[in-house]
Amino acid sequence: MPFGFFKKKKQEEQEPALHYDPTNIRVQDLRIGFVLDYELKTWEVKEHFVYDWGDNYFTDTFLLHSGKDQLFLSVDDEDGELYLVVSQKLRVSLLTPPIAETVRQTGKPPLTLQYEGVEYYREEENYGYFRNVTKNRHEDSCEMVEWVYLDKSGKNTLSIEQYDEEEFEASKGFYIEEFEISNILPTGNPTQML
Predict the structure, then answer these.
(1) Nearest of 88, 83, 49 to residue 173 by alpha carbon
(2) How many whole angstroms separate alpha carbon 138 and alpha carbon 161?
(3) What is the predicted pLDDT for the residue at 194?
(4) DSSP one-letter string for the chain
(5) Is 34 exposed, middle or buried (0-12, 13-18, 19+ CB in 10 A)?
(6) CA-atom Rg of the chain in angstroms
């Protein structure tokens, strides 16, 4: 892969202010400071990341905290169909075969990966821009590529993200349904929620 690909993209358009129905707040309405219930715990949204895949297609990912526990919730609204993934970061070095070495040699990670005795199969390759909007909604985005793997059940995911020639991140997760998240409430400073 030619690595002129990894560069910054400036945010040119201002994002619209958040509008939601306070009587029907949905997972797509999440912003920093919101709280929600999931798996018998209350979680607070601490950080917000946006993946821009082009053609007005975005994925929002939120870092959630509940006491000492944390997880990521990815919200992908694709043509009215909602996909939610709960995940946790993992060390790339724990994946077999070695990712960085395979990408250096072939330009892509392997078709199959193993983690904790489970085999995952590469399903998607996505090029886009990543931006952390936690502190500055208008910070520059950086280019990245994401490879998504699924296990045989199709419910468990493993994803690898590459940000430059040597920077890789990985996460393991699973799909959930919208009804598994409840009691979404905005809290804190309303200006943080715009």
Answers:
(1) 88
(2) 22
(3) 41
(4) --TTS--EE---SPPPPP---TTS--GGG--TT-EEEETTEEEEEEEEEEEE-STT-EEEEEEEEETTEEEEEEEEEETTEEEEEEEEEE-GGGSBS-HHHHHHHHSS--SEEEETTEEEEEEEEEEEEEEE-SS-TTPPEEEEEEEEEE-TTSSEEEEEEESSSS-EEEEEEEEE-GGGEEEEE--S-GGGG-
(5) buried
(6) 17
Full-model pTM: 0.85
Q: What is the pLDDT of residues 58-110, one digit of tens each?
A: 999 999 999 999 999 999 998 889 999 999 999 999 999 999 899 989 989 99
Place of tokens 């994925």: 59
At 133, list the tokens: 């909007």
The token pair that represents 103 in the structure block: 């990408």
Q: What does the pLDDT look like over 142-178, one tens digit per residue?
A: 999 999 999 999 999 999 999 988 899 999 999 999 9
pLDDT at residue 15 tops 70: no
Nearest Cα to Cα of residue 155 among 121, 105, 110 = 121
Beta carbons of 75 and 30 less than 8 angstroms apart: yes
